[in-house]
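Supplementary Text 2. Reproducibility record for the structural model of the 189-residue chain.

All settings were left at their defaults, and a single model was retained for analysis rather than an ensemble. We include the record here because the model underlies the residue-level annotations in Supplementary Table 4.
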Amino acid sequence: MFYRKIVFTLVLAAALFASLAARSEGADEAKTNEQGAAKAAPTRSARQTVTSTSFSPAVSEFLQRPLASQLVTINPSGSPQVTVMWFKYENGALLFTTTTDRNKFRNMQKDPRAVFTVLDPTNMYKWVTVHGKLSVVDGRDPQAFYSGLAEHYLNAESLAEWRKTALMDRRTVLRLTPTQITTMGFPQK
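Retained model, structure tokens:
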């Protein structure tokens, strides 16, 4: 019986020691991973924003990517109405599509002021914010524009699913013409 207690105590001590050693190795590994992530993560030495009325070449290139954006319009009450949107950058303006029964369209009719923001999903210190005025784009097929956006944003499988549910009726194309562009994380001209 005495030997069983000793063996049990030794096994328990060995298990406890192994557990502590594993935790220590895990902590060291986590610390190494954190240090590696810190080296890989973008750093922010200072908040350097640039404000202009036109897009730099680097920002124009960034806006060609299929990134989610937020479009803010002004509700009749004066409160903001925010919608996550697909967009297309074209000739110094941003293009969107919506249906004419949506709040953002009605808001634009009463007050064309809007704000657009897009953030690099891999670097929170790289973003673009555009203040401007919305207008309806005439002479462009809204359904074709919407289909082109879907092809830009979706893979083949998702595109097939999107086609089953896409709302094409009462669709229009909106243009946001910039009055002020603020960016962060892009090279200076």
